[in-house]
């Protein structure tokens, strides 16, 4: 059965539903999403490298977890469901801000056009990765990450690059 996600308008009001892959084709359709940024008590950020089997931005580094709530699923439930599914742990999450962005993966011609809710959490353990979702992970200091983003911007997902500075402001 295809996974269905929520279509929204520019104010995050629900306007319909669409099969997940279809939401990313032909320039994309605006849909609800979330991005989770996990920090440890040393103020390092946990990054994940997306699995090579992902439809878009495969093998690219990103924030700790990102996905879409399912139809009729509360955003607060979706963030915990996906964090457990992708990274094998859960923690307290706080919504920090939201924004709309649009970006196309040049490799696959799939487009993310998302009303993206950004969540922040703290965790000091090691994740238990779901290999279907995540290839590898690491902790990294913010200043090292920002240096690498300048040198190697193509190694990172667009939503991660767009949201990082605002996430750091919300710590």
Automatic annotation (TrEMBL):
Alphabetical list of Pfam families matching this protein: NUDIX (PF00293)
CDD domains reported for this sequence: NUDIX_IPP_Isomerase (cd02885)
Keyword Transit peptide annotated: no
One MF annotation (Gene Ontology) recorded for this entry: isopentenyl-diphosphate delta-isomerase activity
Domain Nudix hydrolase: 29-162
InterPro entries cross-referenced by the UniProt entry: Idi_bact (IPR056375), IsopentenylPP_isomerase_typ1 (IPR011876), NUDIX_hydrolase-like_dom_sf (IPR015797), NUDIX_hydrolase_dom (IPR000086)
Pathway the protein acts in: Isoprenoid biosynthesis; dimethylallyl diphosphate biosynthesis; dimethylallyl diphosphate from isopentenyl diphosphate: step 1/1
Record keyword Isomerase present: yes
Active site: 66, 114
Alphabetical GO biological process terms: dimethylallyl diphosphate biosynthetic process; isopentenyl diphosphate biosynthetic process
EC id: 5.3.3.2
Name of the protein in question: isopentenyl-diphosphate Delta-isomerase
Organism: Huberarchaeum crystalense
């Amino acid at each position: 059965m295809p996974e269905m996600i929520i279509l929204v308008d520019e104010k995050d009001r629900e306007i319909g539903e669409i099969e997940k892959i279809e939401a990313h084709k032909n320039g994309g359709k605006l849909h609800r999403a979330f991005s989770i940024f996990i920090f440890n008590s040393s103020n390092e950020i946990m990054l994940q490298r997306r699995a090579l089997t992902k439809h878009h931005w495969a093998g690219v580094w990103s924030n700790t977890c990102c996905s879409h709530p399912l139809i009729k699923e509360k955003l607060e439930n979706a963030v915990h469901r996906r964090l457990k599914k992708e990274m094998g742990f859960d923690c307290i999450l706080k919504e920090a801000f939201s924004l709309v962005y649009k970006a196309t993966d040049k490799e696959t011609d799939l487009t993310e056009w998302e009303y993206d809710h950004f969540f922040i959490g703290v965790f000091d353990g090691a994740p238990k990765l779901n290999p279907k979702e995540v290839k590898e992970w690491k902790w990294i200091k913010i200043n090292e990450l920002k240096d690498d983003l300048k040198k190697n911007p193509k190694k990172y997902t667009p939503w991660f690059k767009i949201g990082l500075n605002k996430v750091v402001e919300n710590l």
